[in-house]
Amino acid sequence: MTAVLPLPEPVLVVPALELRGVSKVYGSGDMAVAALSQVNVQLQAGQMAGLLGPSGAGKSTLLMMAGLLDEPTEGEVWLHGQLASGARATIGDHRAFRRACIGFVFQKPNLIPFLTGLENVLLALDINGQRGAPASARAMELLNYLEVAHRRDNLPSQLSGGEQQRIAIARALANRPPLLLADEPTAALDSQRGRQVMTLFQRVAKDTGAAVLVVTHDHRSLDLFDRIFEMDDGCLTERPGGSSRTGTEAGAMEWNATFP
Ligand SMILES: Nc1ncnc2c1ncn2[C@@H]1O[C@H](COP(=O)(O)OP(=O)(O)OP(=O)(O)O)[C@@H](O)[C@H]1O
What we know:
ABC_transporter-like_ATP-bd; 7 helices; single chain; 4-stranded antiparallel sheet; 23% strand
């Protein structure tokens, strides 16, 4: 008689980010602007996704919803299996959740001008209660990872745009967020430095298992993305293609809370 082997338990991969039927209307009456219309999207741990689209299409609005910086008019935002929006929300304190679980990078690095590169990263750790030698070690680890450790004692005004953006990424990663959101992070950089920064985002997704969503107008770096979304007049579509690590391959990854 053939032995019947027990089937393995199905592995449930919870998306790092999921928007379900998300719409956003700014204003009301004649002044109403429908910035997002019924957006549905899932982003898995370890995936790097690009978000393209013309000016005014709704890209930043989508990022604001995903980053819990604003509430959708309709629909649900899920982060790591937790519902963040609406009456049934399981994430109550958006600010605390954001601080611990979401990293943001913007077009301008927005570093504190009177703090050195190292101190800018230490500040992000301090805000989350990490101080002393472990915080210093963590900050240096991040600056090394982003290849900017040699500039740790310089003020932002003494750094190039690319170096400042690397420190801003180190700061965004300080608390090991499972979700990293970036709004045109390379817009102020020349194409070579822009690609270097985009490559760093790709490395972060691969090494840490964080889901990375980048709004960009830079079509020259599209080969670096696992998935490419296009926004037009508030509607989101996914472009076929992306890199080799699409769908389940990158999605099967677990977020690695210990690296870098
Ligand atoms: N706070 C607001 N109040 C009213 N309308 C807004 C607000 N924020 C954005 N909008 C409108 O919502 C629409 C989408 O804006 P959004 O900033 O998301 O577009 P975008 O794709 O990021 O554009 P860009 O590439 O120019 O940054 C636009 O018509 C914009 O004018």
